[in-house]
Design brief:
The complex is a heterodimer of chains A (152) and B (282).
Chain A: E1 2-7, E2 10-15, H1 22-29, E3 48-51, E4 54-57, E5 70-72, H2 74-77, H3 85-92, H4 102-115, H5 121-128, H6 138-150
Chain B: E1 8-11, H1 15-24, E2 29-31, H2 35-42, E3 50-53, E4 63-66, E5 69-73, H3 81-84, H4 89-98, H5 104-107, H6 112-117, H7 125-131, E6 135-140, E7 143-148, H8 149-152, E8 153-155, E9 158-159, E10 166-173, E11 179-186, E12 193-204, E13 207-217, E14 221-225, H9 237-250, H10 261-280
Parallel strand pairs in B: 1-3, 2-3
Antiparallel strand pairs in B: 4-5, 5-10, 6-7, 6-10, 8-9, 11-12, 12-13, 13-14
Helix pairs in contact in B: 4-7, 9-10
Classes of the chains: A alpha+beta (152), B alpha+beta (282).
């Protein structure tokens, strides 16, 4: 079947099987490799993208389910003059180590900073609960995202 | 890389279209958000002939409030509940329960219907809905039926929904001036919850005007509603706890990889005790 998705403002159309996962469409059809495939069970958050402005795990969704919605991947977070505030802060504070979880933390960090009110550590921790960092650098990640969100 | 088995994908836009397609197929998989369903497909736990996507059916996206009656459409996303439900105590218990499901990226995909229909003992909404005496609103080709949520589950992963039927949503009465408590205990994140307890009580001058409580979780199986009508005084807390502990002792709890029966019962005692303290103690 023909699957037509809008990713980072660009339309992609491809003949695919309905069983194709959203994460595979993003990586293999759109060629956007910043969204990673991690645990494949919805626990690690490496495949997180924004779907109509809400964070979702693209390994738990069929590509066909995302038709008619706007998808933003980590590549789409970047602004004209480079990285967005969360990406820039994560980079400057050296919050990410191996970087495998970068897509997850950048996506959810951006969502938290733009949507959560009265930010504190607890809210940020709750928001980040769906992303796993196996380098265990949570402390700096939480501090960095809290700082950016408080300044929004 | 986990790839789901091959299936036909059918998107439905109206209930009539759903009934027609669902009645033609032998064992279709119904998806709204798809979080758990897609995971089950990827793990090849299910191999349906077809997947019917119901997320575009307008009747399932509705929230209706009529006097003290609330109807939540099956497609309502879990993250939306805290913003759209009224400010009463029954809704508060539902929001408390929904806010403990997974993380925001799961709640933004997962739907009320999915959480209610799967029948997994670890699901949260069934316990809260059982405590507030909610009803399942079931649609079929020739009409709508209302079933108490307590009768909706036959056994774990098995509901009363028949071929061609669909959960349109859940319906409950608003409750005002109640205290609520929602407790659960898990072993592995996003895996199995040993026990889940939901409680709601109205107290006036040391008298229990109304007290409802339900429990579920891996230890229990399908949700269980307690009969607490005989208790009227808050100073009976000790007796209430003892009665419920006695009840827990009568149910069959299995020793398995999630823990021994003894451990699971102790978890239930603790959750029950904490929930009772939270709603009855001043």
């Amino acid at each position: 079947m023909k699957i037509k998705l809008n990713i980072n403002g660009t339309d992609y159309e491809s003949e695919e099987e309905p069983r194709m996962l959203l994460v595979d469409f993003i990586r293999d059809v759109a060629g956007l490799k910043g969204t990673h495939v991690g645990c494949e069970t919805g626990s690690c958050g490496a495949c997180m993208v924004l779907l109509d402005g809400m964070p979702v795990k693209s390994c738990l969704m069929l590509a066909v389910q995302a038709e008619g919605k706007k998808i933003i991947t980590i590549e789409g977070l970047s602004e004209k003059n480079g990285l967005n505030k969360v990406q820039k802060a994560l980079s400057e504070k050296k919050a990410l180590q191996c970087g495998f979880c970068a897509a997850g933390f950048s996506i959810i960090g951006t969502w938290i900073s733009e949507n959560e009110k009265n930010i504190d550590d607890k809210k940020v921790k709750e928001g980040l609960a769906g992303v796993v960092c196996r380098c265990s650098g949570y402390d700096t990640i939480i501090k960095t995202i809290t700082e950016v969100a408080k300044n929004e | 890389m986990k790839v789901p088995p091959d299936f036909k994908y059918l998107r439905t836009y109206t209930l009539d279209e759903y009934y027609e397609k669902a009645n033609q197929l032998s064992l279709p998989l119904i998806i709204s958000g798809g979080t758990v369903a897609v995971l089950m497909l990827k793990n090849r736990i299910i191999r349906p002939e077809a997947v019917i996507d119901i997320s575009q059916i307008p009747e399932l996206n509705m929230l209706k409030i009529d006097k003290d009656d609330v109807f939540i459409g099956a497609n309502t996303k879990l993250y939306k509940l805290k913003n759209v439900l009224p400010n009463d105590s029954a809704s508060e218990l539902i929001v408390k329960s929904a806010s403990t499901i997974g993380d925001i990226a799961i709640r933004s995909m997962g739907s009320v219907g999915g959480n209610v229909c799967l029948g997994d003992p670890s699901n949260d909404l069934p316990v809260a809905l059982t405590a507030i005496d909610a009803q399942a609103v079931i649609g079929k080709k020739d009409g709508i039926t209302y079933t108490p949520i307590t009768s909706f589950y036959i056994k774990p992963f098995k509901t009363i929904l028949n071929k061609g039927e669909i959960l349109l949503g859940v319906n409950y009465k608003m409750l005002n001036g109640y205290r609520t408590s929602y407790k659960k205990h898990f072993i592995n994140f996003l895996d199995h919850y040993v026990g889940i307890v939901a409680a709601i009580a109205k107290i006036e001058e040391n008298t229990i005007k109304d007290f409802r409580m339900a429990m579920a979780g891996e230890a229990v199986g399908k949700p269980v509603k307690f009969d607490l009508s005989e208790f009227s005084k808050v100073d009976e807390i000790k007796t209430i706890k003892e009665r419920l502990f006695d009840y827990v002792n009568t149910i069959h709890v299995e020793n398995n990889r999630f823990g021994t029966a003894n451990y699971k019962k102790k978890v239930l005692y603790t959750l029950i005790s904490r929930a009772i303290d939270e709603v009855l103690k001043f």
